[in-house]
What we know:
This protein is of the alpha+beta class.
Amino acid sequence: MPEGPSIVILKEDVQQFTGNKIISVSGNASIDISRLKDKTINTFKTWGKHFLICFDSFTVKIHMLMFGTYRVNERKESTPRLSLVFEDGELNFYTCSVKFLEGDINSHYDWSVDVMNESWNPKKAQVSLEKMPDKTICDVILDQNIFAGVGNIIKNEVLYRCYVHPESIIGKIPPNEISQIIAECSIYSFEFLYWKKKFELKQHWEAYTKSVCMRCNLPFHKKQTGDRKRRSFFCSNCQELYI
């Protein structure tokens, strides 16, 4: 599943179509996409893992799910979920969710929980964590209502950086460690963006998919952790378990 930084790259890739009119629309989306014909795109936005195509009175929300892809000014052989054609190019989305959001986009999203948005509010995240002391940190980091845009790669890398075991209980983690984790969720997301643009993201992974801890030279543990049962890679020697 594409994480927040990858959706920011998508937004940057399609800026050429801002202010352009859609002259043709097609695809196998389950909604009435015909309403998009002859509409002009006002702007593109992102919220976490959501890509947003904004018009005057509504927005198209695209979620890439696990295997979604897109093409700018080219097509795949498979039928797109949504295809938008302009006078000077086209935009195609595949294997994704497409929905309409009616009215003002600001009524649908809290921008302050998006770790890559200029309105990101780490204090708000801290308040949210204080309200769920019995949850595991590996689950909470993936909660899009608190850390919109953070996915499993970022989760693993942040917890390794912060020396915290993924199965640690929120209420048992020292406050300074919580603050560091919250900050790193945003910091690492921007580093992820930088590395991905340079096509070198995997070179910088220190925990995700790794088999040996670079700090301790001991085997990593690979386990499905928390209620979400997402893959965690961690070192039981240097990542402290707070329970």
